[in-house]
Amino acid sequence: MKKTINYWVEKLALLPHPEGGFYKETYRSPVQGSFHGFDGDRNVVTGIYFLLTKDNFSAFHRIKSDEMWHFYAGDSLEIYWFSPQGELAVINLGLDLEKGEVPQAVVPRDCWFASRVKQGGDYALVGCTVAPGFDFQDFELANREDLLNIYPRSAEIINQLTRQ
C-alpha cells in the first residue's frame, strides 16, 4: 500500500523547503575544504530527503555544485534543466525503466533546474546528494523574466515552474 504524504513528513521529520516541498538534511560531511569557484570552505558532500507533492513544485534555481538525485518512493518526478548550451532537458526520475525513467541522475553545477511530480501523481520522495556540499550562499532562485529573456523558446515550462 502506498504511504501518504503526511506519513513521510511525520516519519522522516521533514520541514518546508524554501524552493518548494519538504526536506530534511540527513548527512553533512565533517570533512571540509576549499573548492575552485567557492567563497570559503565547504563540506565535501551533503545529503537530504526531499518530498514534492502534486501541489508543490521545486522552482527553477541553480547551485554551484553537482546534484545527484535518487528516487525512493511515490510517483515519478520530472526534473527540467538547461544545459550550458541552452537546451532544455528532462529527466524522468522513477523506477519504471521501460518508460525511460531512471532511479538516479545528476544535474550539473550552475545549471538552472526545477522539478515537479509527474502529472497524475500525488507525491515523489527522493534524495539529493550535493558535492561540494550544499550551502545556501551557493543557491540562487530564478527570476521568471530573466529566464524568459535567456530561454524564450521554453516560456511555457518557465512560466509553470517559477514563482517570481
Structure write-up:
This protein is mainly β. Helices cover 12% and strands 42% of the residues. The longest helix is centred in the N-terminal third of the chain and has 7 residues, at 5-11. The mean pLDDT is 95.
Characteristics:
164 residues; mainly beta; Jelly Rolls; 6-stranded antiparallel sheet; 5-stranded antiparallel sheet; 3 helices; 12% helix; Cupin_DUF985; Cupin domain-containing protein
Could you outline the blueprint of secondary structure elements for this entry?
Blueprint: H1 5-11, E1 15-16, E2 22-28, E3 32-33, E4 42-43, E5 46-53, E6 58-63, E7 66-74, E8 77-82, E9 88-93, E10 104-107, E11 113-117, E12 123-131, E13 139-141, H2 144-150, H3 155-160
Antiparallel strand pairs: 1-2, 2-5, 3-4, 5-12, 6-11, 6-13, 7-10, 7-12, 8-9, 8-11
Mean pLDDT, as a whole number?
Answer: 95
Query: Which outline best applies?
Result: globular
CATH superfamily: Jelly Rolls
Largest sheet: 6 strands, antiparallel
